[in-house]
Amino acid sequence: MLVAGRYRLGELLGRGPLGEVFEAVDQQTGGAVAVKLLAPGHGARQVSRFVLEASTLQALHSPLIVEVLDVGEEQGRPFVVMERLRGEDLRSRSARGPLPLQQIVEIGRLVAEGLEVAHAAGVVHRDIKPANIFLLAPGFSPAVKLLDFGSAKVIAGSLGARPGEPTKPGDLVGSPRYMSPEQARGKPTIDGRSDIFSLGMVLYELLAERHPYADATGLADLIMAICTEPPLPLALAAPNVPASLAKAIDRAVAHDPRARFASVAELRAALLVGP
User: Fold this and answer.
1) Active-site residue identified among 70, 89, 127, 256
2) Are residues 151 and 182 in the same domain?
3) Has residue 172 got a pLDDT over 60?
């Protein structure tokens, strides 16, 4: 399939709630790209969210966030052309076994740095999870890219956003395993501290080699646990983690947003391998 008369689609790289991502070749440059196409049959709200993701990514300029090269529509299906990344996502990597402590800390610091750019632009990612953290192959820099802003919340007035678009209060947006209590409750007023919680959950799971709510038996149990049960202190779940790092993760996953770091910059500064 040829998209926009230019991008020759190849292998299917992945499929998500909003669309499919294909490897493609740019016929004008000969370079490899990734093309995300909205899946057929979606309604107006899904189209709006897909378009919002594209415009958000275009506005966020950081080497730590996947770059958008082109946007358009093909036979009524919106598409986004992105840089083709080489490597694997954190979910795939962690499934093969534990990561070294220093690498976990570096991943956390880089993700936090990418989120600083998003938050400064008025964008809350709302879906920080291992599958949306891409680890580039050795030799590529930076080592991490943030993916998938399809669940992002753009603060009214930022990037031309309008209030109430395109989700409604009470909508469950994001991946339940990593969402903050306020996000799980569908609160309309979440801010960057929700992303801090989600990143903290990712790092907690990597360091403890176990998700803090792994015993939840279904979605309802998981949501209930997130909303009512603070995670076990990391020092108890992973005694070998340096005390200062465990303390930083515990603060990041505090139930009350006011008890968390005030910004991802503060979290990044606290992510150190020390005593």
Assistant:
1) 127
2) yes
3) no
